Amino acid sequence: MQSLDSITTHFSSVDPADQIAVFDRSTFVVRPKPYNRRNYCKIGLILGNVRLYYADREIEIDRPSLIFSNPLVPYAFEPLSSKQEGYFCLFSPEYLKNWSARESPLFRIGADPVFFVDQVQQEYISGIYRNMMRELDSDYPHKFDLARHHLMLLLHEAMKIKPATTCFPYKKAAAARTASLFLTLLDRQFPIEHPQRILQLRTASDYATHLSVHVNTLNRAVKEVTGKTTTDHITGRIIDEAKVLLINTNWNIADIAYCLGFEYLTYFNNFFKKYTGVTPGYFR
């Protein structure tokens, strides 16, 4: 039986532009999982009853379905039947050249992530998955390019299908759930592993937009559950990451400032000194 840990190990040894993996769900470890922290896109053909927790929504899946998950949105599965079959494909955002998951209607934040499929669509989509698995298991030198074409067929087929509309808010402990989603998304922004990676979300408004909630709702929930403001959490994580980068890398301070979202070094210096009492250079 395979697990998500095996995927992480597999991807760690592969160039981001070639990071794709396809699995048969019947041979995969299926059990209730907490919100996943992953850095890749996922497309799954679900054959078997499950409950999908996606951002602040809950979706009952009781028929063959395609599901899409964006790296920025936390999600979790709860199997509702013993029989769990189908396939899923994981790939890095860099895998599809000249294509952005954030801009696709299939992966857009706030979009419906579930598409119910009929028998004909199920058979066709299953064939695409099997073709990808066969090619990726081969010694063909251009197998990643070929699998990329199969994946595009899968995406285009999905865009022909009307999304499911059975989503509904998860009411229980709404504030705790919203705060948990925020903290999970905040955690996903770090660590900053190279100077070219720029912090995407820096304000409470940024996080509210990605979680599809009003910023006042987010602020109220985070304050109620944690006792700290949304901005306090964001600021604290940025300061912590800045300290790690200053101590453990040889990047110049201007590069650190830029990757943490500061357009000008002066802004970063003032920000860091405000919350630590010293300049970045003195701290280093």
TrEMBL record:
InterPro entries the record matches: Homeodomain-like_sf (IPR009057), HTH_AraC (IPR018060), Tscrpt_reg_AraC-type_HTH (IPR020449)
Gene Ontology molecular-function annotations: DNA-binding transcription factor activity; sequence-specific DNA binding
SMART domains attached to this UniProt entry: HTH_ARAC
Gene3D superfamilies reported for this sequence: Homeodomain-like (1.10.10.60)
Sequence ranges assigned to domain HTH araC/xylS-type in this UniProt record: 203-284
Key words of the record: DNA-binding, Transcription, Transcription regulation
Matching PANTHER family: ARAC-FAMILY TRANSCRIPTIONAL REGULATOR, TRANSCRIPTIONAL REGULATORY PROTEIN
Name of the molecule in the record: AraC family transcriptional regulator
Source organism (scientific name): Chitinophaga silvisoli
Organism lineage: Bacteria, Pseudomonadati, Bacteroidota, Chitinophagia, Chitinophagales
